Structures are given as structure tokens and as C-alpha cells.
Structure to design on (438 residues):
């Protein structure tokens, strides 16, 4: 039974610091084996969850949503007003997207998403967050120096473009709708999805290229 | 709590280590921890209590250990605090006592089942409440100058500053109390801050920062 005793947890962390092995692989193995022995975890379920997020749930889902919004203006309207319902139409409603919001890039606005307090991320549409998203450098600087951060991603934002940084401090999650690049008029939905990068849906990419790249 | 987890605007962490690795898990143990976190039968606790327990990790560990390793550490801490795992079991890395659940392993879940069930994992944290929201869109507010030593979602960089109500979201579970096990809904707003209002070095920019903030973090600006 959880007792919500923060002082006790602070002490437990100090005990764990000296009593757990240093290697993360050994720490996680210890956690799994104890939980399995106690009947709290089924290792086959862990296998399945790994496979789901390796093979099935990832940024291709977000790219599909973006491509649909680019090609179907009624869908885009639904996406901008009620994103959870709109992604549910594509079968992507799920983990951490119960309160999804979509923010749209324009010629005058660039959106960038961060979680400064932990690492909140819309799992069911973008999969597992990239390492940099969860690292102190990004979490600390995205709100203070977004233009500097974007330069490190090779993205330069003109001074007349307003940057809007979304700090995910509540249970809402944010997905950036990037701009459809000029020259893609003849592309169908599948071809469009192929040019949407994961980073463009977080906001660390802006001008999409026409060549399909395989989602990063 | 004013801990090292509250990273917004802190300096000295260097440039972003940009990588374009496509694999979601870089090491096998990362996938195992992700899977454990998704399917473990956990003590009755709130997500905010779990987040608070992660914030309580020793600063040197919080800042130096890999991200999903900190999840494992938080899982250990919440299980131990709830009395489901003992420190002795960690020393031996085996279960030393049987639990009510022992021998009653949860049924295995297949990839297909998980995909079918995924939409049931979309937890909703909002619910209607009787009171009306105090603030309206476009209204100027000032955020609380102080936090408190428990869990809170008002980051230090956004305290004691003026902002404007951008949108009203509804009433959401209030994390400061949820981290103590009390699920009480409170009005939640999207609040926009001029970057020039937040950071001393920014004075000629129209850039903005948006935060989702609960009503008790805010007061009307006079």
C-alpha cells in the first residue's frame, strides 16, 4: 500500500544508491526478476510491450496524422479542435494522448515542444522519445534559448517568425503540425507521410525536404 | 520541490547532443524497463506520486544516470515504500517473501492484444466540477512567487511573473495533492508568457512560452 511518505522515499533512494548494482542493465534485471518472482510482472508481457514500441507504435503514426491533415481540410479542422477524437479515427488514440493538442506552424509561427519538469511525450503518436528530448541540455534550454537550440539541430528561424515554446506542465501533450512543403502538391497521403520527420512534430525541424528519408 | 529536476532555464548543461538514431531503445535493458513500466501490477498510487518519487532521486543520480534507469530506480522506490519489495530482496536480487499475488502471475499479453487495448491506456484526468473558472481568456495573471517542498507543476522559472490566460482547458486532477494521494480536480489554463518577461537577456523578441497551469498557481494581475 502506497503511504505517500516522501521522507521515506528520500531515504530509500540513498539506500538504493549504495545497494543497487551500478550497471543499469543489472539494475533493471534485478527489478524484473524480483517482480516476476512475486507475480507482479509477466516476462512475456514485457517482451510484447518492447515489440509494440519497436515495431508498431512510433513516429510513423504522427506522420500519418500530419499527411491526413494536409490532404483533408475537414480532418485538419477536427484535429485542431479535438485532437484525441481525430487521432482515434486513425486508431492512434492511446498512451499519453488522452489530452493531445495540435499546434500549427505557419509562415509567422514556429512551435517547439518540451517538458522541463520530467519528459512528458505523446507516446501513442510518436513512440519513445529521442534521448536528447529527455536530456538536461534540451529541457533546460528549450524555454530560454529556443533559437540557440534550434541552431544545434541545423534549423535557423528568421527573427520575424515568432517562436512558441510549449512546456508540457500538465497532462496535455503537444504535437506540432509542420508546414506542407512547396512542390509536394502532387504527392498522395503516403508520399507526404514519408517526408514528415519526427523532429518536425516536436519542433526541432521546420522546413521539410521533398525526398523521402525514412522517419527518424 | 525546488530540486534539480526543475530544469527550465537552468544553465551549464551544454549544447544538445543531437542524434538521429532511429531505434527507440539503444540498449536491451531500456526496452525491458519500458515494458516493465507498462505492464507491471503496481501499488495503488497516482502518476504524480510516481513523478514526485523520481524528483526525490539524489541529485547526482538524477543528473548522471540514463533516463530509463531513473524509471527503474523510481519503480524500486515506489515498490519499497509501498512494502511490496524489501531492501533485503534488493541485496539478494530475489524475492524473499511470498505475496498475495505469488503464484498468480498476470496472464501474458500478446502484441495483438496490446495494440487492440492501446486506446484503453488513454487516461483522462479531467472531470466537471461545480465551481466556475475564476479567470477568463485574455485576462492578465501573475503566478505564485513561491512553490512548496512537495510535488508541484509550477516550475521555478515561471514563478512571480505576469502572463495572460491563453485558453481554459477544464478541471484536471491537481498534481500537488495527487502526489499525496488526493485526487481533487481544479481548473487548468494555458497561460502565455512573453519570453522577455521570463529571461533577463531577452528584450527585443516576440517569442513566447506557454505553460498549462492550475488555478491555485495564479492570481489576477491588478
Amino acid at each position: 500500500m502506497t503511504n505517500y511518505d516522501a521522507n521515506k522515499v528520500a531515504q530509500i533512494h540513498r539506500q538504493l544508491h549504495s545497494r543497487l548494482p551500478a550497471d543499469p542493465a543489472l539494475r533493471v534485471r534485478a527489478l524484473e526478476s524480483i517482480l516476476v518472482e512475486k507475480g507482479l510482472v509477466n516476462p512475456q508481457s514485457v517482451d510484447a510491450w518492447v515489440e509494440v514500441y519497436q515495431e508498431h507504435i512510433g513516429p510513423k503514426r504522427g506522420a500519418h496524422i500530419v499527411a491526413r491533415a494536409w490532404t483533408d481540410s475537414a480532418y485538419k479542422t477536427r484535429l485542431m479542435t479535438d485532437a484525441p477524437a481525430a487521432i482515434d479515427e486513425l486508431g492512434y488514440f492511446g498512451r499519453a494522448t488522452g489530452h493531445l493538442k495540435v499546434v500549427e506552424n505557419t509562415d509567422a509561427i514556429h512551435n517547439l515542444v518540451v517538458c522541463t519538469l520530467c519528459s512528458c511525450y505523446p507516446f501513442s503518436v510518436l513512440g519513445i522519445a529521442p534521448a536528447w528530448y529527455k536530456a538536461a541540455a534540451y529541457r533546460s534550454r528549450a524555454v530560454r534559448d529556443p533559437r540557440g537550440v534550434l541552431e544545434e539541430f541545423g534549423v535557423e528561424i528568421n527573427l520575424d517568425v515568432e517562436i512558441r515554446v510549449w512546456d508540457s506542465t500538465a497532462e496535455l501533450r503537444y504535437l506540432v503540425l509542420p508546414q506542407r512543403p512547396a512542390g509536394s502538391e502532387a504527392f498522395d497521403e503516403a508520399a507526404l507521410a514519408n517526408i514528415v520527420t519526427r523532429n518536425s512534430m516536436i519542433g526541432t525541424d521546420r522546413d521539410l525536404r521533398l525526398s523521402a528519408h525514412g522517419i527518424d | 520541490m525546488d530540486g534539480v529536476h526543475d530544469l527550465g532555464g537552468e544553465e551549464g548543461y551544454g549544447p544538445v547532443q543531437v542524434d538521429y538514431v532511429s531505434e527507440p531503445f539503444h540498449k536491451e535493458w531500456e526496452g525491458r524497463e519500458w515494458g516493465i513500466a507498462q505492464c507491471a501490477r503496481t501499488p495503488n498510487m497516482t502518476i504524480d506520486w510516481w513523478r514526485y518519487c523520481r524528483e526525490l532521486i539524489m541529485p547526482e543520480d538524477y543528473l548522471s544516470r540514463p533516463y530509463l534507469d531513473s524509471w527503474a530506480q523510481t519503480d524500486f522506490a515506489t515498490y519499497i515504500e509501498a512494502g511490496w519489495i524489501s531492501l533485503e530482496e534488493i541485496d539478494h536480487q530475489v524475492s524473499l517473501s511470498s505475496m498475495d499475488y505469488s503464484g498468480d502471475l498476470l496472464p501474458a499479453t500478446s502484441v495483438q492484444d496490446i495494440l487492440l487495448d492501446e486506446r484503453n491506456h488513454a487516461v483522462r484526468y479531467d472531470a466537471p466540477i461545480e465551481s466556475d473558472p475564476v479567470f477568463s481568456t485574455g485576462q492578465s495573471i501573475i503566478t505564485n512567487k513561491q512553490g512548496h517542498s512537495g510535488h508541484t507543476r509550477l516550475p521555478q522559472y515561471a514563478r512571480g511573473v505576469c502572463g495572460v490566460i491563453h485558453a481554459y482547458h477544464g478541471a484536471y486532477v491537481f498534481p500537488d495533492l495527487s502526489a499525496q494521494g488526493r485526487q481533487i480536480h481544479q481548473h487548468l489554463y494555458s497561460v502565455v508568457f512573453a519570453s522577455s518577461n521570463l529571461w533577463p537577456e531577452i528584450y527585443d523578441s516576440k517569442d513566447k512560452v506557454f505553460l498549462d497551469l492550475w488555478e491555485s498557481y495564479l492570481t489576477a494581475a491588478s
